[in-house]
């Protein structure tokens, strides 16, 4: 008897869909790549041809130069060999998608990275019934339960208003997290200009071009300390304690990341104001998603695979871990 999903071949650098002769999120150049989203542990340049959402292709163009891209909008499908391929929203970042594969009566959903929280910068996750669900496990431990997003943003606003002679310097990854923090601030009524490190400008502009409202953004370059006092300043995490930050007015150092739940990580990065804000599902959201979709099998990758596999097995859901290579910190 054939094994469920035996037409898929997990390799350390990606998942090969044999009857389509295509790879999902390969970390090495391949002739045909299906890409879930634009983070560097899932998308890279150099492929012969790329199928992804229009937004993901735009992100890849911005990061790697023009791609040999084939845009597939949410809800559209195409046939590759004997496989019908579709893209549905993953709720992770702009353009992020789950890849739905139908082949000879079996359906496999490769979710990429996903979250279930509301996010003003991307389309919400869409559950799809399937035989095999390939899930991430970045925060797949019961200790990871993300707090309310609004409460975390309010912590930032309160600290800002309490220190009008200083700025709050927020470290956030360039794709997804920076734009989400800005959009969440706007949603909480913060309409003041927000200052950007130059490394964030290009992708913020791309989000705006795709209809995401970010309000007034200004470059740190050329701004005086007096101008930035009482304002939010955004930068990549690597610039938080860099010489670059010396130009700022006595910054209160913050970082937006799901890993800020781990106090040691905050201390290591000298973060004064940890903001627990993740673009990945937490433990409850992962397990609730599996219960909702109710697949026959769960394949687990990118993170704490063992705990999620154990949770599935306790509920008589067949599960296994895939040994894929990932760099989880890029998009936490």
From TrEMBL:
EC numbers on record: 3.1.-.-
Coiled coil segments of this chain: none
GO molecular function term, any single one: exonuclease activity
Enzyme class: hydrolase
Keywords of this entry: Exonuclease, Hydrolase, Ligase, Nuclease
Organism superkingdom: Bacteria
Record NCBIfam families: Xnuc_lig_assoc
Protein name as it appears in the record: Ligase-associated DNA damage response exonuclease
Organism this protein belongs to: Sphingomonas kyungheensis
């Amino acid at each position: 008897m054939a094994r469920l999903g035996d037409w898929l071949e997990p390799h350390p650098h990606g998942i090969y869909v044999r009857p389509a002769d295509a790879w999902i999120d390969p970390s090495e150049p391949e002739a045909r790549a299906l890409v879930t989203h634009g983070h560097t542990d899932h998308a890279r340049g150099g492929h012969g041809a790329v199928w992804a959402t229009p937004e993901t292709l735009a992100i890849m163009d911005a990061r790697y130069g023009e791609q040999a891209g084939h845009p597939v909008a949410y809800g559209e499908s195409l046939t590759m060999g004997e496989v019908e391929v579709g893209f549905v929203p993953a709720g992770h970042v702009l353009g992020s998608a789950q890849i739905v594969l139908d082949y000879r009566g079996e359906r496999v959903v490769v979710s990429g990275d996903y979250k279930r929280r509301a996010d003003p910068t991307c389309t919400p996750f869409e559950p799809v019934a399937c035989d095999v669900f390939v899930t991430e496990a970045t925060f797949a431990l019961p200790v990871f339960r993300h707090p309310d997003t609004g409460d975390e943003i309010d912590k930032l606003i309160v600290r800002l208003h309490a220190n009008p002679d200083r700025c709050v310097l927020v470290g956030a990854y360039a794709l997804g997290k920076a734009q989400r923090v800005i959009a969440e601030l706007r949603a909480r009524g913060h309409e003041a200009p927000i200052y950007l490190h130059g490394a964030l400008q290009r992708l913020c502009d791309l989000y705006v071009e795709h209809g995401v409202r970010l309000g007034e953004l200004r470059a740190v370059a050329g701004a005086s300390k007096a101008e930035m006092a009482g304002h939010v300043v955004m930068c990549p995490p690597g610039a938080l304690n860099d010489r670059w930050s010396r130009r700022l007015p006595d910054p209160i150092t913050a970082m937006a990341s799901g890993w800020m739940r781990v106090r040691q990580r905050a201390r290591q990065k000298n973060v004064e104001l940890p903001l627990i804000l993740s673009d990945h599902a937490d433990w409850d959201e992962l397990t609730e998603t599996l219960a909702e979709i109710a697949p026959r099998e769960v394949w687990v990758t990118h993170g704490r695979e063992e705990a999620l596999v154990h949770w599935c097995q306790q509920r008589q859901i067949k599960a296994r871990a895939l040994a894929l290579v990932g760099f989880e910190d890029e998009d936490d």
